[in-house]
Specification:
The complex is a heterodimer. Chain A is mainly alpha-helical. In chain A, strands 2-1-3-4 form a 4-stranded mixed β-sheet, sandwiched between helices. In chain A, helix 7 runs antiparallel to helix 9. Chain B is α/β, with parallel strands linked by helices. Chain B has 12 helices and 14 strands. Chain B has a 6-stranded mixed β-sheet, sandwiched between helices. In chain B, strands 2-1-4-5 form a 4-stranded antiparallel β-sheet, with helices on one face. The longest helix of chain B is centred in the middle third of the chain and has 16 residues. The two termini of chain B are about 35 Å apart. The C terminus of chain B is likely disordered. Classes of the chains: A mainly alpha, B alpha/beta. Chains A and B meet through helix 1 and helix 8 of A and helix 3 of B.
Chain lengths: ~400, ~300
């Protein structure tokens, strides 16, 4: 024999779980996540293996070769230099299929080189050639003055600049982290709307079908509400675990964001913790308020304000947190229990949290739940046997049973 | 033995007094018929017994102790407004109710099979309730009240919507449960059924019990007049003869010119009346005109003209 709360919870879980439509829709969603991951893997190009910059050199200016090869080549993996005569160089430059590609041909004089491009001059190549020309000219001049060009070069190589700033730089938001936080918060919103609606419909279904009278002859209204929230919560958690697990698995397994510096395991755990708390807050409200109406078509009148209460914190964490990750408004709002389940995971994902903020928000939200339990159970108990039109909230809060 | 006692229940909904100091008892092994016009307070009383509503005053006791949540798990309840989960399968649903009442999964499964077979819906166990006909839904509703082997039965209109076969099965089940020592209370507007089935009857009007007792007890309230019918004489002649008999008042029998009702005030006066009429006419009927439950019910209700028009 189970306790009545667990018996109710089990029914709620099983009747939702073991339906064809549920199994199909879950499978479709998991499939979509995996497909999305694979598509992301294909569409987001792997970083191109950097190739060396290939330059042709007129034998007349072969003196430039060592200086060109020593030049910092930006994104390219160094510079390779090849001696070519004019005809060969021009032919290769004109050939679009030449591989490896010849970027340019350098001719003229060492102190005044000419750079021949296929078409548009490349600034990077120009800078490299110019620097090489300067270095070669400097080396010539030093040698002419009787100095040692090699000693000069090693002295120059030892030059180092240290950076200091008067104003600290602002927290930079990594786009990858932002994507993760959007996914986390959307998942939370999706799960809360889904579970909240299920709870509201479940409560009204029992009222409409009058089965609630049989239930209440056996168990307390609080037990019924608790069992319902527990069962639907478990189902919602199952969904978020399957979908979130699939998403985490895809991201980790396929390496969709290889440079992402986020601990996905911890993000997932935080999502679950905040889901539980957010669920506690909103499910209680959905359950208690839904008891005020008696017909499915009236559900909207109680769920709409609650949906609004879900969307406001969602959009705030969506827009405010990235825009002002360190503002006082963000810090204050993210401590409010209705906002915290959305804002805290977002802030954690973008890494703008101070150590004390998350524990405080967790505590505040956790403390709100018993208060909501009391209010919801009171509304539910008084309203659940009421039939006909919508019952006023104030009536349910104070009227006799 | 365990008696169900309803002691001084009062309940108001705003200005409406639904129950006024309602008291009665249902003994172990007794089938108690709960009769009253619409709005008399039957359903409110039953809801209070089951704890679905809270009484303003009074108490419901079973076996000498308050019928609390724990004890209510032993009660089988069929609410007036039927309630089942429409999309849940019959067997799953009954299993759920049985477990909610404290049965183990194994006991529950066995009980679900037994009761669905007994009530003739065994072949529909795997179907969602909404796919069943109303009559079959009604049988499932009964099964839901019986499945946990309750030790008290409170049934609000259990017979409404049942076909004659189901009525017979239901009657048999109630008798059987009563024989096992279970107090059974049910409400009904089918008074012939109540008369046939019940050990005792309570008539409720405007929230208070106006009469309780066995059917013979209710009939023997002194109201029962004698019916005297005759042949071969004018009514006026007979009435003249009866007028001479003391301790008697004579009233018409509706729709009959050859019969009168004799309300006896002096014991034995009806015998004197018989002798008087035998001298002038041939007597064809002479017996106490026992009222049916419907008559008793109308009597009770017609004392309250505001209710008479809605009486069943």
């Amino acid at each position: 024999m189970r306790g009545p709360i667990l018996t109710v919870a089990r029914r709620e879980f099983m009747t939702r779980m073991v339906t064809k439509s549920n199994i199909i829709s879950l499978a479709v969603m998991v499939g979509a996540i995996i497909a999305f991951g694979i598509a992301g893997k294909i569409l987001v190009p792997d970083e191109i293996e950097p190739e060396p910059l290939r330059l042709g050199l007129d034998p007349a200016v072969s003196e430039l070769a060592t200086h060109l090869e020593a030049a910092p080549a930006g994104a390219a993996a160094g510079v390779t230099v090849e001696e070519l005569d004019e005809a060969a160089a021009r032919a290769e430059l004109a050939d679009p299929d030449s591989d490896p590609r010849l970027e340019a041909w350098v001719t003229g004089e060492v102190s005044a080189p000419t750079v021949v491009f296929e078409k548009d001059p490349d600034a990077e190549v120009l800078a490299i050639v110019e620097q090489a020309a300067r270095a070669a000219t400097t080396a010539r001049a030093v040698a002419d003055m009787g100095g040692d060009p090699a000693a000069l070069e090693s002295a120059l190589a030892g030059v180092a600049v240290t950076v200091d700033q008067v104003v600290e730089p602002e927290t930079e938001i990594d786009p990858g982290q932002m994507i993760v936080s959007v996914v986390v918060v959307s998942l939370l919103l999706f799960a809360l709307i889904g579970s909240g609606s299920m709870i509201a419909m479940g409560v009204v279904e029992e009222k409409t079908s009058r089965v609630v009278e049989i239930l209440l002859s056996t168990i307390r209204p609080g037990q019924l509400l608790a069992g319902k929230i527990l069962g639907i919560g478990a189902y919602g958690l199952f969904q978020i675990a399957v979908l979130g697990g699939a998403a985490t698995g895809v991201v980790a397994g396929l390496g969709v964001f290889p440079d992402l510096e986020i601990n996905l395991g911890l993000t997932f755990l935080l999502t679950v913790v905040w889901f539980l708390l957010g669920f506690g807050v909103f499910a209680l409200l959905f359950g208690g308020f839904a008891a005020l109406v008696s017909r499915q078509e009236d559900i909207g009148s109680v769920t709409t304000p609650l949906m609004f209460a879900l969307f406001v914190p969602f959009y705030v964490s969506f827009f405010l947190v990235p825009a002002q990750p360190d503002s006082t408004l963000t810090k204050v709002l993210s401590q409010i229990p209705f906002f915290a389940p959305f804002m805290m995971p977002t802030r954690a994902a973008v890494g703008s949290l101070e150590a004390w903020e998350m524990p405080l928000a967790l505590l505040l939200t956790a403390l709100t739940i018993p208060v909501l339990v009391w209010i919801s159970a009171r509304v539910y108990r008084r309203a659940v046997l009421h039939t006909g039109g919508r019952m006023k909230l104030s009536e349910a809060l104070r009227g006799p049973r | 033995m365990s008696t169900l006692e309803i002691d001084g229940l009062s309940k108001s909904f705003g200005p409406v007094h639904a129950l006024r100091d309602l008291s009665f008892e249902v003994r172990a092994g007794e089938i108690f018929g709960f009769v009253g016009s619409n709005g008399a307070g039957k359903t409110t009383a039953m809801r209070i017994m089951l704890g679905v509503l809270a009484a303003d005053a009074g108490e419901v006791r079973w076996d000498g102790a308050a019928l609390d949540l724990e004890a209510r798990r032993e009660v089988g309840y069929m609410p007036e407004e039927r309630g089942l989960y429409p999309k849940m399968k019959v067997a799953d649903q009954l299993q759920f109710f049985a477990e909610l009442h404290g049965m183990t999964a194994v006991e529950a499964r066995e009980a679900v099979e037994r009761w669905t077979d007994r009530l003739g819906v065994g072949h529909r166990r795997g179907d969602a309730v909404e796919k069943l006909s109303l009559g079959n839904q009604q049988r499932v509703q009964l099964a839901a009240a019986l499945v946990h082997n309750p030790r008290v039965l409170v049934l609000d209109e259990p017979f409404s919507g049942l076909d004659p076969v189901a009525v017979d099965v239901m009657s048999e089940v109630l008798r059987e449960r009563a024989a096992a020592g279970v107090p059974v209370i049910f409400s009904s507007h089918q008074l012939d059924l109540v008369e046939r089935l019940c050990d005792r009857v309570g008539i409720i009007s405007e929230g208070s019990m106006v009469a309780t007792g066995t059917i013979p007890e209710l009939r023997a309230t002194g109201r029962a007049p004698w019916l005297l019918a005759w042949r071969g004489a004018e009514a006026a002649t007979v009435r003249a003869a009866l007028a001479a008999v003391p301790g008697l008042s004579v009233t018409d029998v509706e729709g009959r010119a050859d019969a009168v009702h004799l309300a006896v005030t002096d014991e034995g006066a009806e015998q004197a009346a018989l002798r008087a009429v035998l001298g002038i006419a041939e007597v064809t009927e002479f017996a106490p005109d026992l009222p049916s439950l419907a008559d008793l019910f109308r009597d009770v209700v017609s004392d309250r003209p505001d209710l008479a028009e809605v009486s069943a």
